[in-house]
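Exercise (ungraded).
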Amino acid sequence: MDFSLSPGAVDFRAAVKAFIAEHLTTEVVDQMHATGTFNDKTFNAALADAGLLAGAVPGYGDRDPIELYILFNELEKAGAPYDGLAVTMLVAGVVNAVGTDFHRNRVLQKLLTGRFNCCLGYSEPDHGSDVASITTKAVRDGDEWVITGQKMWTTMAHVSDWVILLTRTNPDVPRHKGLTMFLLPMDTPGIEVQPVPTMATERTNATFYDDVRVGDEWRLGEVDGGWAVMGVALAFERGVMGGTNPAVPLLRHVRDWAGGAASPDGGTMLQDPLLRERLARTAIANQVSQLLTLRAAWIAATGGLPGLEGSMAKLYATGRYQQAVGWFQEMAGAEGLLAFGVDDAAADGWIDYDARHAPVTTIYGGTTEINRNNVAERHLGLPRDR
Amino acid sequence: MDFSLSPGAVDFRAAVKAFIAEHLTTEVVDQMHATGTFNDKTFNAALADAGLLAGAVPGYGDRDPIELYILFNELEKAGAPYDGLAVTMLVAGVVNAVGTDFHRNRVLQKLLTGRFNCCLGYSEPDHGSDVASITTKAVRDGDEWVITGQKMWTTMAHVSDWVILLTRTNPDVPRHKGLTMFLLPMDTPGIEVQPVPTMATERTNATFYDDVRVGDEWRLGEVDGGWAVMGVALAFERGVMGGTNPAVPLLRHVRDWAGGAASPDGGTMLQDPLLRERLARTAIANQVSQLLTLRAAWIAATGGLPGLEGSMAKLYATGRYQQAVGWFQEMAGAEGLLAFGVDDAAADGWIDYDARHAPVTTIYGGTTEINRNNVAERHLGLPRDR
Amino acid sequence: MDLDLTEDQESIRDVFADFFSSETGPEQAREAEPLGFDSRAWDRLLETGAPGMGVAESSGGGGANLADLAVVVEEAGAHIAALPLVDHMVTTRLLARVGACDDDVLAGTTIVGLAIRPPQDGTARTVPSGAVARQVVALDGDALVLVDSDPGAHLQNHGCLPLAHRPLAGATVLAKGPDAAAAYHLALDEWRTLTASTLVGITRTALNLGVDYARERRQFGRPIGSFQAIQHLLADLPGLLDGARLLTAKAAWAGDRAVAGQTGVADIGDNEITDFATLACMALVSAGEAATTATDRSLHVHGGYGFSEEYDIQLYFRRARALTVVLDDPARECRRLADMLLTRHATGTTA
Amino acid sequence: MDLDLTEDQESIRDVFADFFSSETGPEQAREAEPLGFDSRAWDRLLETGAPGMGVAESSGGGGANLADLAVVVEEAGAHIAALPLVDHMVTTRLLARVGACDDDVLAGTTIVGLAIRPPQDGTARTVPSGAVARQVVALDGDALVLVDSDPGAHLQNHGCLPLAHRPLAGATVLAKGPDAAAAYHLALDEWRTLTASTLVGITRTALNLGVDYARERRQFGRPIGSFQAIQHLLADLPGLLDGARLLTAKAAWAGDRAVAGQTGVADIGDNEITDFATLACMALVSAGEAATTATDRSLHVHGGYGFSEEYDIQLYFRRARALTVVLDDPARECRRLADMLLTRHATGTTA
């Protein structure tokens, strides 16, 4: 094995790091947490203008999937607002893989400019993990479709230009087989976005679709072929596009804080043996998380679909992140409770933030239970429970 | 609430402690680990002769179940060979609850002398957690029964005078309903005992029953009523008769060792902050385990059946015990690997012993999974999985 | 030996369960955020006599003991009452013990609180009731001091506790010397015990919320609570809950014995612990862990909804963590406990 | 970037998988207990050239690098070979580096081992191969020394490792000063890396044993592996296994770079770690945890049978723990790691 990056990847990473050093200002970070929108169109546009975005579309162009991994890993490690961009580039990849020329011209090219966003419309209030049971209806009416229903957890819908929307087009066949995907402009009449505030800083949305009419050209993939389109998206998503190294910025923030914080036992917190042990354990977990993610990228780069490997990376990384957050919040005591902007807040409030944010990481993008089912059945070959 | 023991219980405990101080010699402890038989007939007989055993039969006589708890908790804390005694007294309780005068005269009175033992014949090679599916057959032949089959995990069979044996008497009804319990003298022709060595010091057995003929007077409970008899035994067993404070002797051994053991960081191991924290956490867990057990005893003492509370105590106590063993074995490093009798063995080899023994504690007497099912379905009211 | 509540305590529990269930709860907790003080509910609480109920009747209080107060605050925790009840109760008892508890404090019209951490540079930091209490009692060196001043500026925090720093400038000295320190430490152990009981209440409700959600929420054509993965996530919690409650009750029992002059023992070799300071510390660590684990698992069972502000579990989740660490890191509490367990020898008589 | 084995390594893996699968395994491991040395298999191993394969061809060895050796010993771990292979390999490389590796050592007819802990009072304690190795190399102060004596009296232990104390009296000094210490520490980091790889092999087989048992064992009318409780107990393990294997491979890669004179960096703020000493320590902790967890869960899945001597999982369970702690407490290893991570600054160039 060779863990050195190729010269091209080294250059690409250096360019991303340089970009981050220049563009990821305190204002950008403060703004993302103040608004709850982990997406910054100016930042995205600058990334595109710097030529760093084309490689971020999975399966598109001549860039290595390793570069896709590098881009999102660097953004995640730096604590940049990348969530909206990751979803957008994921959709770009799906559009590229299964879309028509119309989609590519009308959507993909725009997405590559960094000035537009997409969001994902899969889950519904009553159908989360069991997404194959969704009930949002799309009914054909001549050359058009009429869509009615509601989606939940449509994060970034309020800043998005398109949504990829999973609908039921045939209720009379087994549930996976009657689904169709659409790529819907968000300004289509009949779409309403309602904010859903959360316990962390980030905002998500519920979206409502009331007799939304779109032409058949906005269909993405085959009629009743929506499940396959989702499969493409999932294979792109799991593990490679951020979300598996959240403890890197946490560790950096805690380390930087601990060097200057007084310990009740005397000296600094950085001299506390238990904190040192836990910093080291977190550093190990961060390496492992990165390697599991890199492996998923490597499989994609060598022509495979790293669905299972992504599940493993997510299971490992999110569990360790939650453990680390719990450790550091306990060790920081009362100061670890204090929020962004409060004097004396441990790690400038990052511990409070991470403690609020961490719980959702074992839910979104596939719950721990769904990922464990995946690994148990598909990797270990254990008999299905249901 | 009042956590003081009654004056009678205080006296009883003092008597048990005095007995242990006198009779639990190094030889007794060494002998139990050398033979793998956690039963000492001399010790048991002396306990009976000291008048401490009558109170150890659940539901028998005028002693408080709190005293039953005290007896086994003190024996467990002291690291005495109590396993055989616990099973024997459990059977005594079952015999007392559902047996005939014949059983009481022939068996119960002898058991109270501490000079005889019983073992449990429930599990079979193919039927462990799913004990209701056992296949050992008992077929009526006039006034006799002919029993054929095999039992597994018949611990103490090699030193037992009787076995209570769960058999299938009716294969044509739902599986719980065709079972009958027998109380079988171990010297009945056709019974064979084969040792099953384990990774810890303790030995268990497989027992074979080949056309074993016994009179109907050795039936315990109704024909096809074996499941109810097992229910009586289980309610007696869970939590109250030892098995929920194994970390007390571990903690004592580790504490005593740590005060004299050099730490690689300088000073003694007892000065290591992480060891101190973990000793304290184990001390907390030991208190909680004791209180959960005491609660089960209290429920029994006030006329209830503490089946669920026993499950909770066992889940909590065995999980913490395993955690503590893992901690201390790691912290003792190479010396924590060394066995009984090896110079320099950490805690005189107890860490190695406990690390070998601990895994079985979440298996025997009801696995963690079975206990969790119990609590989930019967205490929390969650819908059945099956 | 009696592991049931007394009849009196059952009445207290019923009365306060009714009170907190009608006057406080998730909606009121939300409205009280971020400060974490529901002044309307506090005013209603004065009518129940709760603020002074832990003070002897001879001193004008309600004559309740620590075990009784634990029953009250478990209900407050279960209903996530945004009230500085624990802090007021233990500080009131402390003031009464040093003869400095006036009627407004007894009545609760003046809110008092305890500085639970050693002051630094003349300031009591992150006082749990510091943003709402008028009077704060602290141990400054060997002096028990009381500062009477405007509540401090609220420090916005994870659990929406009314935290504030309180400068001790101008504080009155209530007592000095070993007795003053002993009185403070007794109060702090009472604070540990009652905070543990609050956490037990939080644990209880968090478990109920998770179980209710798991029974109602359906995925794949069945309640999610019928999946073994969900069942087993929840099945460890009743043991944690009941264990923490029993240990907290034992701490309260030991506290009442300590107040009555009976000493306890702390012998880990025999697992025989009746010493109040030891049990109070154990109870807080144990209840903190129960609450942290239960709220975490219950929130997870809620899926995405657990993360949304609309659902109640996140309120419990954040308060569980806040109350667990506001005094100190539980690992450091354990090391403090070890100092007690490993240096002290068993003293006094066996319970 | 290449996360696949080289073609050569695939051949090495296949050859040694065949060798260990036919010459070693659970039955042989049982027969070798309690000493933990299978002399017949060792004699057969000499024919493969494995004992000296990690030494440069110019010095008469097989020319394999650390990454190659990791492939070999993963197979040894997976087949629970009762052989002092890791110890012999790293010590042989160390001796070759200081020009003291004779032909018998290269051939494996003289077994050599490493004293992995600092000697105390003139004795190397609990040397992992101390009860079978003729020659033991230790770092005594700043002197790299070799003792040639009869193997020590076996210390019976949890994992049936051939542990023994080895007095250093009469030892030969091989080298002295900073270079000697550096050579020793390089060897110790190689020991960490290869022990990690052994643990990866143990993890792999433990997982397979658990999965096989769960598929075959039926209770309640279905394979126990169809219960979600069992599935989820096992489902975390592939990530632990693969993560530990990747980290170990990365450590071996960094070790080979270090031998070639390339320095690495260790920047936890950017999660950029290419330094060998750092990665070797990380790999051992990570693989130790994977093996401990996998053997524990797999044994549990086996029910009572896991505890019986008849089944194989208990062999893996005990060796996993033994290899995880025989060098030191993993928590102490983590503190040592923190010393490296928090005081060292990023040096050298990025990989």
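Further reading is listed at the end of the chapter. For now, observe: The domain at 7-116 of chain A is CATH 1.10.540.10 (Butyryl-Coa Dehydrogenase, subunit A; domain 1). The first strand of chain A starts at residue 118 and ends at 121.
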